C-alpha cells in the first residue's frame, strides 16, 4: 500500500483534556508526531509569560498542535459524511485528495515556533513562518523525510497550505481564517488551562454547521448564533487573558533582558565567561541556521537566566532576577493626549536610579476581533460567510448586531511600563527619593496617565 | 499589627482551573509565594515523565502547592465555623493558634523538590524532605526570612508539621495522612490535566464531613461512601497514571542518562568541554550545598541533554536523544517464577549490540492504597477514622468491603525494560541479528515474560 | 432566641447540580421550604413548553427558587465580609438587618407562579405577581404563618422587596434588576439542563466584583468584562432557547386548547360530563380564590388534556393530541411589509379544512437584552453601574461596545403559526387539496413570508 | 428504498446534556420517537421519589430512552468501523443485519414503564416488561405500526431482544447485561441531574475497549480498570442515591396511599364522589387493558392526590398531604437479631394514635453490584469478560481485587419506617403521649434499632 494511504492496523489515541481523545489513523501522522522537531514543541509553552499570571496555563505548543489536528480531522469526517464531491468542481469535499494534506498542515502549522516566540522574534529578527516552511522543506529535517515519503511534492504542498497559497481554499480556510481549527483549539485550550470560562463556545455545534462550498468554507445560517458566540469568546479571551497587563510587563522584562545580554556578550571578554550563552551567540550576531534554532526551547533560556542572575553586570543580573522570580513592572494606560508626559516620567525614573532604556517601555496591545473582507487591506481577511437555505451567502456582521459592533474596530490599549518601586508608599520619611516618587504618582489616576 | 495577623486590605485571588479561585488573605502567605524559592517551583513539573504519556499533564509543583494551601484554608474555615475550641484540650479547633502554621506548612510542603525528583534523588542520593527543612530553617533563604518575621521559632514549627513532629495531630494530619490536603489536590489536579476521570471524587462533601477530634481528624460516618470513593480514585490513579509503563520507561532512560553523564564527566578532559554541565558537578561529586540545589530546574536538565545529544560519547548521546525525542523502552511483566529468565534476555540484548547496563532495567511500582494503623510498620500510617453519631470512632476498612479488599495489599507490578528494537518485526530476511530477535520474542506473551 | 435569629444547630445542605450545594442556615428558611405552597413548585416546570424542544429541561421552579436563594446568600456573605456598614447611612451593607428579608424574598419571589404561567395568565387573566403577594400576606397560607412568626410586619416587608418598594435599594436590586440573583440562576440552570453552553458566564467572578453602595449595587470596573459576558450570555439564551419557534408553537397550541375548553365547558351539558375539569371552572368564570389557584400544577393540566384527547369535540380532542403527543405547528417570520398577506394565508388554511381561530396565530417574541435607565419608560430599568477605583460610577453601555450595540434595542421576531399539514409534499397526485397547498407554499422562502 | 434502510436526508439531532447530541439517522427511529406511546414517557420521571431528595433529578424516562439509543448507536459505529463481519459466523459484527433491531430495542426498552413504576407494580400487580412487549406487538399501538412497516416479524424481533431471546447475544448484551447501554446511560444521567459525582465513569474509554465476539460482547484487557471503575460507580450510586432512606420512605407513603385509595373507593358511595379516580378504577379491580395503562402518568397520580388531600377519609387525606407536601417517614436499620423488637414498636406507634398498617413499614434495599455467571441462579447473569491480546477470555472479578470484593454479595440494608412524630423532642411536659415517645426512642441508637 502507498505510504499516504497506510492506516494504522488499529486507531491510536492520545488522551486529551480538551477533546477527550485525539485519534490517529494514518501512519504518516504518527511518524510526524515522533520526529524530533515535533517533540521539541513539548518544551515550548503555548502562552509564554501568561502562565506567570494564570498559573495553570503551563500547556505547550505540542498539545495545541495535536488539538488543531484533531479539530481538522473532525471537520474532514463531517465533510466526507455530508458533503462528498461527486464531480470535480462541484464545490464539495474531495476527501481522498485533501484529507492528508489538511491533517499534516494542521499538525505542523506551529512547528517553527521558538521559545517565547513573539518576544524572541522581535529582538532577534527571526520569523516563525519562514522557519516553519524551512522545517517542512529542508531535506535534513525528520519532518521533511516523513513528508517526502508521501511524494516528492508533498512537503511543498503542506507548506503552501500554511502559506495560504494552496489552490483549494477549503483546505486553507480550515487551517487559517477568522474561524479555523487553530483558533478554535487555542481558545478552548487556553480557557481550560487558565481556568477561565470566557473561551468556551459550542465547538460541536460549529463543526455541525460548517460546510464546504466552491470558494471555501461557509456556515449554515441556522448556526449563526453559535458563530457569533465564538466571536464573542475570542474577543473576551483577548481582553481578559492575552492582553493582561502583567503578562505584557513580563514580556517587556524578557525583551529588555535579551537586549542587555546581546550588548553584554558583544564584549569578547564577557563572551568567554563560564556560563556564557553559546546557544544564543548565533542569534546575537544574526548568523544562525536551522540547527541553531532547533536547539532552543524555554528551558534553554531560563537556564541562561539562572546563570545571568549571578552575573557581575547589575542590569543583566537584576532583569534576570525580575523575570525568574516574577517581579513584574507596573503600568498605566496612556493616550495620544497624554503621551507627551512620558519623557517627564522617564526623567523621574532615571532620577530614582533606573536606566530608562531597560526599565521602561511602551507597549500596545491591539486585536481586530473580526472584519469583513476588505480588498484595500494589506492582507485582506477571509470573511465569515453564512449560507441560507437556498444557498445564498451572507456575511456575518451584516446579520449580527453584536459582531457588527466590533467589526473592523481594533480593541486594546497602550501602556507605559515602569518599575513598581516608583509607586512605593512605605518610603521612610527621610527617604531622599521621596519627592521624586510623589511627583511621579501625581500623574496616575484610576490606572491611567493624567 | 503583628505580622502574623496582618490581613491583606483586600483578599487577593489567583485563578485556578481546579479550585476556581485560590484566596490569599494573609500578608505572610503572599510574601512566601513571592520568594524566589517558591517561584522556582514554576519550573518543576509535578508529574515528571508522565507528561510524555499524558500530554496535558504539564502542570508544575507551583500550581499544586497553591492547591494544597487552598484546600487547607477551606478545612480551617469549616473547622472554625463548626468546631471552634471552647476550652483548651477539648479536642476542637483552635483557629487563632493553628491556622497560620497549617497554611504555611501546606504551601511549603513540596518546596524542597528538584527536577524529576524521584529519579534525581535515586541517582544523586539527595532527599527532598531534608532539603525542605533546610529551606525553611536556613537563615539565608527568602522563605526563612518571611517565616522568621512571624516569630523566631516559627520556621521550626512549620518544619515540624511537615516532619510530623508538631504537637497538634490535627495540623499534621491535615497536611499529611492517608486523606490529606496534599493527596486531595494532586489527585484532582492530575486528573484535570491528564484529562482522565479516575481521580475525580467529591471534594466538597469530604471537606464537609471532616472534623477535628482529640487525636487528629475524623470523618462523620454519613460521609463514609465519599471517603471510600476517594480511596478508589486514588487506587485508580496509581494503576492508570502513576504506574504507566511508558512513563516508567522514560524514568529508566533518565536515570541511566544521569548515571552515564556522571561517569563520562568524571574524566577531567571531558569535564572541560564546552557545554559541560557545571551546575551538576556538585551532585556528581555529592558535594553540593543549598544554593547549588536551588539553581536546578527541569529546563537546566533538558538544556544539558540537548548538549549531550551532540556528545562524542555514543551512549550519552543516544540516551539523550531517546529522552528528548521520546523513544521509550519497551517492557514486560515478570514474576519471581520467571525472574531467572532475565540474565538470558540481557545476554540476547548484549548480542544485539546494546550495553545492558544502560539499556535494560528492572523496575517495581508498588503502592499501598490504604492501610489501617499497624504499630509493627517502620512508619505506621494514620488510619482513617469514621465518627458515629455518638462520637465513637470506627476504622474505615472495617465498614467498607471495597476498602477492605485493598487494605494492606500492595498493588503494582515489576517490569523488565529493554530497547524496542528487540521487538522489531520488519527486519530484513538477511538481517544478521534475526535469530537473536526471534529468541528474544519467544519469551514474551500477553505483555508478560514466559 | 428570637425566631428570626434561630440558626440550625448544624447547617443543612441540599445537593444541587448547578451550585453543588445549597446551604440552609436559618430555621426560618427551612420552615419556608417545608410549606405546602413552596413544595407545590416541585410540580411546575421552570421552562414550560421549552422542554418539548430541549428534552433535558425538565427542571422545576422549586429548583430555581433554591438557586436564587443560594446566590443571594453568597452575595450577603461577600457583602458582610468585605463591605460591612459602620455607621448608618454609609452606603455599606447592614447584614443583621437585611440578610433575612433578602433571603426570604429570594426564596419566595416565584411562589405565585402557576402551571405554564405565561400562557395561563394570558388566557385566564391571572397575575403571578399579585398572587405572590397574596401568598405572602394572606393569614391562611403556611408561608404567611412562617413569615409572621418572625414579626407581624415581616410578610409585608418581604412582599415589598419583590414589589420593589422596599426602602433599601441594595436588597431590591439583589433580587430584581438587570443583573440579579434571579437571572443569574435561571441562565445557569437553564443552560445546564438544556445542555447548551450559551448561558455559561463566570458567576464566581461576578459575585466577587459586586458591591453595595448608597443607591444599590455596583460592580468594580475590573470586572467589566465578566458583566459584559453575562449580558452576552443572556442575549444568546433568549435567541437560542427562550425564543425557539417550536417552543412558541407549542405555547400557541396550549393557549388555543385552553380557549377551546373554556368555550366547550361553558355549555352546561358538557360541564357535567365525566372527566370535566372541575379544578379549572373557577378560572373559566374568572371567579377563583387562592385555594383554587394553589390546587393547580402541570400534572393537573396534562391530566385534563388526556381526558380531552378522548372528547367528542373534534377541536378540543385534536389540540389535546397535538399538545400531549407533541405535534407542533409550523411558522414563518413576517414583517410589517408582508403582514398584509396573512389574511390570504388564513383563507387557504380554512379551505384546507382547519378552523383558523384555533389553528393559526401570530406571536411576537421580543426581549430588551439591556438598557440604561430612562425616566421616560413606564417601568424604568435599573442600569448596571461600574465603580472606578476612586468611587465614581459609570454606566455599562458607555464603556462596552458590545453591550452598547444591543442597548435599548429589542431583539426577536414575529411569526405566523399554522398547521404543518400545509407544507406537506407527499400529497398524492389526485389530492383535492393540492392546489391549496401549492398556493400556500409559494408564500414561503428561507423560513420567511414573501 | 425499503423503509428499514430509509435514512433522513440530513441527520437530525437532539441536544442532550449528557451526550451533547443525540444523532437520529433513520426515518424509523424518528417515527418511533413521534409516537404517542413514546411521547408519554416525557410525563414519567426516571427516578420517581428520588427527586424529593435530590431536587435536580426531575428528568424523565423519555430523556433516558434517547440516551440508551445514543450509546447503542455509538457502540454500533465502533463495531462497524473496527470489527465488521467478513464471513457469517466469524463472531464479528453484522451491521447491516443488526443495527436497526439494536437501535429500536434500545429506544423502546422502557416503553412499558408507568408512573412511579416500582411502587405501582407492587400494589397493582402490573408488570412493565409484559406491557413493553404488548406495546411492541399489539396492532393498535402507534409503535407497532411503525415497527410493522419495517417487516411483519420486526415487532417480535425487537421484543425478543428486550426479552433476551434474540438469537444474537451481541445485540442482547448491548441492551441488557451487567454493563450495557441502559445502565451506562442511567448512571451518567442520574449523576448529572442529581449533581453528584459518584456515577461518573469513562464512557468513551469503555466504548473504545468494547468488542463483539462469538458469544456476545467482551472488553479488551487494557480497559480493565475503566470497567472496574464503572462497577465502582454503579455500586456508589446504589449506596448513595438509589437506596437513600428518605426516598424509600416516600415510596412507602406512596404505596400505603394507593392501598388506602383502593380500599376507600371499593365502597360504591365513595366511588361516585366528585374527583373519584376514574382512571385508576381498572387497576383497583385488576381489570385493565393497554389503553387504561397508557392514560396514566405522574401527573395523573398527583392530580388525584391533590383531590384526596381534601378527602373526608382522614388517612387518605393525611397520606396525600405527606406525599405532596413531602413529609417523609423516619426509619431505623434493623437486623435479624433485632427484628423481634418490631411488634413492640408497632404497638407504641398504635398507642400514639397511628394506624400501623398505613404508618409503618419494613423495606429492604439490596443490590447485587456484580456477579459472575452462576448456572444455579434463577436468572444467571452474563458475566463481564475481558479479552487478552491472544483472544483468551478472563472473567472480571478474577483479575480485579476490588470487583472481587463485592462480587456475589448483596449490599444494602433493611429498615423499619415510622412517623417522625415518634421522635419529637419538643413535646410539652404535660403531653399525655410522652412516656410512649420515650419508650420508643430508647430503641434507637446511631440510626439503628437496638
Please tell me about this protein's structure.
Chains A, B, C, D: One of its GO terms (molecular function) is dGTPase activity. Chains A, B, C, D: This is HD domain-containing protein. Chains A, B, C, D: It comes from Secundilactobacillus paracollinoides. Chains A, B, C, D: Residues 61-187 form the HD domain. Chains A, B, C, D: One of its GO terms (biological process) is dGTP catabolic process. The structure is a homotetramer of 450-residue chains. Chain A is built from 22 helices and eleven strands. Chain A is of the alpha+beta class and 450 residues long. The mean pLDDT of chain A is 92. Chain A has a four-stranded mixed sheet. In chain A, strands 5-9-6 form a three-stranded antiparallel sheet. Chain A has helices at residues 27-33, 36-39, 61-82, 95-108, 117-124, 128-137, 142-150, 154-162, 169-175, 181-194, 203-209, 224-242, 245-265, 268-271, 281-284, 290-294, 298-308, 314-324, 342-351, 356-359, 401-406, 434-441; strands at 7-16, 20-26, 210-213, 216-220, 330-333, 361-367, 385-387, 393-395, 411-418, 444-445, 448-449. Chain A is globular and about 80 Å long. The first copy, chain A, is 48% helix and 12% strand. In chain A, helix 3 (61-82) packs across helix 10 and helix 6 (128-137) runs antiparallel to helix 8 (154-162). Chain A folds into three domains: 3-241, Hypothetical protein af1432, CATH 1.10.3210.10; 244-324, Up-down Bundle (Growth Hormone, Chain: A); 329-379 and 410-450, Up-down Bundle (Growth Hormone, Chain: A). Chains in contact: A-B, A-C, A-D, B-C, B-D, C-D. Chain A binds chain B through residues 14-18, 20, 34-36, 39-40, 42-43, 51-52, 54-56, 58-60, 62-63, 66, 192-196, 274-275, 278, 295, 297-303, 306, 321, 324-326, and chain B through 14-18, 20, 34-36, 39-40, 42-43, 51-52, 54-56, 58-60, 62-63, 66, 192-196, 274-275, 278, 295, 297-303, 306, 321, 324-326.
Amino acid at each position: 500500500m502507498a505510504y499516504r494511504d497506510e492506516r494504522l492496523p488499529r486507531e491510536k489515541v492520545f488522551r486529551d483534556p480538551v477533546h477527550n481523545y485525539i485519534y490517529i489513523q494514518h501512519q504518516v501522522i504518527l511518524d510526524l508526531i515522533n520526529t524530533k522537531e515535533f517533540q521539541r514543541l513539548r518544551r515550548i509553552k503555548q502562552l509564554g509569560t501568561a502562565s506567570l499570571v494564570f498559573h495553570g496555563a503551563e500547556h505547550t505548543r505540542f498539545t495545541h498542535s495535536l488539538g488543531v489536528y484533531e479539530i481538522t480531522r473532525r471537520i474532514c469526517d463531517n465533510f466526507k459524511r455530508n458533503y462528498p464531491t461527486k464531480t470535480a468542481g462541484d464545490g464539495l469535499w474531495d476527501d481522498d485528495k485533501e484529507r492528508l494534506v489538511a491533517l499534516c498542515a494542521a499538525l505542523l502549522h506551529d512547528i517553527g515556533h521558538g521559545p517565547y516566540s513573539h518576544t524572541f522574534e522581535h529582538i532577534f529578527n527571526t520569523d516563525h513562518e519562514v522557519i516553519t516552511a524551512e522545517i517542512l522543506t529542508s531535506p535534513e529535517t525528520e519532518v521533511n523525510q516523513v513528508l517526502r515519503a508521501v511524494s516528492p511534492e508533498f512537503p511543498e504542498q503542506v507548506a503552501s497550505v500554511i502559506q495560504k497559497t494552496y489552490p483549494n481554499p477549503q483546505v486553507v480556510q480550515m487551517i487559517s481564517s477568522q474561524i479555523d481549527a487553530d483558533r478554535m483549539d487555542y481558545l478552548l485550550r487556553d480557557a481550560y488551562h487558565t481556568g477561565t470560562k470566557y473561551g468556551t463556545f459550542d465547538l460541536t455545534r460549529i463543526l455541525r454547521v460548517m460546510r464546504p462550498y466552491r470558494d471555501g468554507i461557509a456556515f449554515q445560517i441556522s448556526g449563526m448564533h453559535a458563530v457569533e458566540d465564538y466571536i464573542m469568546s475570542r474577543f473576551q479571551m483577548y481582553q481578559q487573558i492575552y492582553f493582561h497587563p502583567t503578562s505584557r510587563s513580563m514580556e517587556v522584562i524578557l525583551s529588555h533582558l535579551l537586549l542587555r545580554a546581546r550588548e553584554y556578550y558583544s564584549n569578547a571578554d564577557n563572551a568567554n565567561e563560564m556560563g556564557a550563552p553559546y546557544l544564543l551567540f548565533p542569534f546575537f550576531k544574526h548568523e544562525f541556521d536551522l540547527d541553531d534554532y532547533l536547539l532552543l526551547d524555554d528551558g534553554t533560556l531560563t537556564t541562561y537566566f539562572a546563570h545571568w542572575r549571578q552575573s557581575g553586570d547589575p542590569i543583566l543580573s537584576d532583569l534576570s532576577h525580575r523575570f525568574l522570580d516574577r517581579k513584574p513592572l507596573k503600568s498605566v494606560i496612556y493616550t495620544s493626549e497624554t503621551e507627551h508626559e512620558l519623557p517627564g516620567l522617564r526623567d523621574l525614573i532615571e532620577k530614582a536610579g533606573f536606566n530608562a532604556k531597560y526599565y521602561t517601555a511602551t507597549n500596545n496591545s491591539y486585536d481586530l476581533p473580526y472584519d469583513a473582507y476588505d480588498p484595500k487591506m494589506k492582507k485582506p481577511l477571509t470573511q465569515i460567510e453564512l449560507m441560507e437555505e437556498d444557498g445564498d451567502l451572507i456575511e456575518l456582521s451584516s446579520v449580527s448586531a453584536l459582531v457588527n459592533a466590533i467589526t473592523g474596530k481594533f480593541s486594546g490599549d497602550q501602556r507605559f511600563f515602569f518599575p513598581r518601586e516608583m509607586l512605593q508608599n512605605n518610603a521612610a520619611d527621610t527617604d531622599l527619593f521621596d519627592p521624586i516618587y510623589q511627583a511621579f504618582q501625581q500623574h496616575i489616576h484610576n490606572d491611567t496617565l493624567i
